[in-house]
Write a structure and sequence with these properties.
This protein is of the alpha/beta class. The chain has helices at residues 17-32, 49-55, 85-96, 100-106, 123-130, 142-157, 193-203, 221-229, 231-236, 259-269, 289-302, 342-345, 359-364, 377-385, 399-410, 427-439, 442-461, 467-481, and strands spanning 8-13, 37-42, 64-68, 113-117, 134-138, 210-213, 242-244, 276-280, 305-310, 350-354, 368-373, 390-392, 413-414. The strands form two sheets. Strands 3-2-1-4-5-6-7 form a seven-stranded parallel beta sheet, with helices on both faces. It has a six-stranded parallel beta sheet with strand order 10-9-8-11-12-13, with helices on both faces. The chain is built from 18 helices and 13 strands. The structure holds uridine-5'-diphosphate. Uridine-5'-diphosphate (UDP) is lined by residues 16-18, 21, 280, 282-284, 309, 356-357, 359-360, 376-379, 382. This is Glycosyltransferase. Belongs to the UDP-glycosyltransferase family. It holds the Pfam family UDPGT. Keywords: Glycosyltransferase, Transferase. InterPro entries: UDP_glucos_trans (IPR002213).
Length: 483
């Protein structure tokens, strides 16, 4: 094959907007910037309205084809309301991937490579049979990657207790120690299926021909260097090449279609520069009724401007809308669960948006001064790439780990203090951090750092020459050269 051919590549994604958004963006870059023809294989189970709109948008490049996998039957008692989020996700994926071989064989020509996200590793077995190299796209941070590569070793070294009960932080080779309270949800209880699934998938990272990391050379540089240079990774466990290709985030957002989306942007147009706190908790984040009350009072008492993407309270899991993100805007009546009179009293200062906002466009807007975030990795990248400092309020998955890295290593975030023995962050604390992030002295250093990172993002992505651009380009060249 010559370098001028258009290689066919397939991309396989697991459910959830936090996976679909970056993998779709990655696919667009392969198609638009790197001359690939891409089949985007999508699992349709419990697809939300926002997801369907995203994947069936008219703006996708012509060389990108979204292919819905035939729906599998996951209803027969496999998952229930109480199944932890990752177990649920992994079971859905497992059932849906039973048709992967026939789907790959039905494509016009067999792909030169398959890129999968972290929870689709059953694909390794199928692709081995078909001799298709598989690359992993890691949708989370360098810190989680190093931890995950180390996890199988940790699992054999610690035999008699839970990791959360270890007396010392976990010393991941070459990296900052991970405090036990920051350990990701799926590894907090080693006795349940969620842990077994996580361990299963991350053990198989080593089967990949390469790992794409959604970060760039200057974000967590020490961790990226450790993964490349520390002998544990390349001599002991044989980590495949790691390519920093990020940040892979949305570049544009079609907001005209959604009423509340364009309302957000029109409202922002009327606010002073750097004056608004944007409160949004990812695709899955939900709060308890009591916590919603405290946030409302905290925002009101702070007397600062805000946009609050709000969802109905959930007293169960803090990831209540993960599988149905942006899907229930109409059934969500904020007035019914906000303190009485809140909407009226704050109508000149704030905007309450049910369920879903055009986050990237809001973060890019110059009126936005701080992002109150659950620290999902995509939200983190979007904030940093736009130079917006964060209030870090982790809720689920690996977000506690991200929040600590953001505050202590990267220096662009502050964590609200939770009083000992309390389950909620109080209104006084919320008032304090919101004020500090908009008008306090402390915000200056964080904003400077965020601005610095914004510039380093532009550099990494520039074409030609940017480190992230060139690293992806190198891999595509290898695909093109394959016969
Ligand atoms: N998002 C959005 N509007 C919202 C909430 C979320 O556009 O109101 C997008 C956000 O921009 C990000 C993704 O949904 O790209 C959430 O991914 P993240 O990794 O931050 O969190 P997760 O949803 O996986 O917990």
């Amino acid at each position: 094959g010559s370098e001028t051919t258009t290689p066919h590549v397939a991309v396989l994604v697991s459910p959830g907007m936090g996976h679909i958004i970056p993998l779709l963006e990655f696919t667009k870059r392969l198609a638009v910037d790197h001359g690939c023809h891409v089949s985007f294989l999508n699992i349709t189970f419990e697809a939300s309205a926002a997801q369907i709109q995203l994947l069936h948008s008219a703006n996708l490049p012509p060389s990108l084809h979204v292919i819905d996998l035939p729906p599998a039957d996951v209803t027969s008692g496999l998952v229930t309301e109480d199944t932890p989020i990752l177990t649920r996700l992994c079971l859905i994926v497992q059932e849906n991937l039973k048709c992967l071989k026939s789907v790959l064989l039905s494509l016009d020509n067999l792909p030169k490579a398959l890129v999968i996200d972290m929870f689709c590793t059953q694909a390794f077995d199928v692709c081995e049979e078909l001799s298709i190299p598989v690359y992993s796209f890691f949708t989370a941070s360098p810190t989680l990657l190093s931890f995950s590569l180390y996890l199988p070793t940790l699992d054999t070294e610690v035999i008699d207790c839970q990791f959360v009960d270890l007396p010392e932080p976990v010393q991941v080779p070459g990296c900052s120690p991970v405090r036990t309270e920051d350990l990701p949800d799926p590894v907090r209880n080693r006795k349940i299926d969620e842990y077994k699934w996580y361990l299963f998938h991350v053990s198989r990272l080593l089967l990949a021909s390469g790992i794409f990391l959604n970060a760039w050379e200057d974000l967590e540089p020490a961790t990226v260097r450790a993964i490349r240079e520390n002998p544990f990774y390349h001599q002991v466990i044989n980590t495949p090449p790691v390519y920093t290709v990020g940040p892979i985030i949305k570049d544009t957002e079609t907001v005209s279609e959604s009423e509340s989306g364009s309302q957000c942007l029109r409202w922002l147009d009327k606010q002073p520069r750097n004056s608004v706190v944007f409160v949004a908790l990812g695709s899955g984040g939900t709060l308890t009724a009591q916590q919603i009350t405290e946030v409302a009072w905290g925002l009101e008492l702070s007397k600062q401007r805000f946009i609050w993407v709000i969802r109905a309270p959930s007293d169960g899991s803090p990831s209540g809308t993960f599988f149905n993100a942006g899907g229930e805007a109409n059934s969500n009546e904020p007035a019914s669960f906000l303190p009485e009179g809140f909407l009226e009293r704050t109508k000149d200062m704030g905007l309450v948006v049910p369920s879903w906002a055009p986050q990237m466009a809001v973060l890019r807007h110059e009126a936005t001064g701080a992002f109150w975030s659950h620290c999902g990795w995509n939200s983190t990248l979007e904030s940093v790439a736009n130079g917006v400092p964060m209030i870090a309020w982790p809720l689920y998955a690996e977000q506690r780990m991200n929040a600590t890295v953001l505050e202590e290593d990267i220096g662009v975030a502050v964590k609200p203090v939770v009083e000992a023995g309390k389950e909620v962050v109080t209104r006084d604390e919320i008032e304090r951090v919101v004020r500090m992030m908009i008008e306090g002295e402390e915000r200056k250093a964080m904003r400077c750092r965020a601005e610095e990172l914004k510039e380093s993002v532009a550099k990494a992505l520039s074409s030609p020459g940017g480190s992230s651009f060139e690293s992806l380009s190198r891999v595509v060249k290898e695909w093109k050269a394959q016969v």
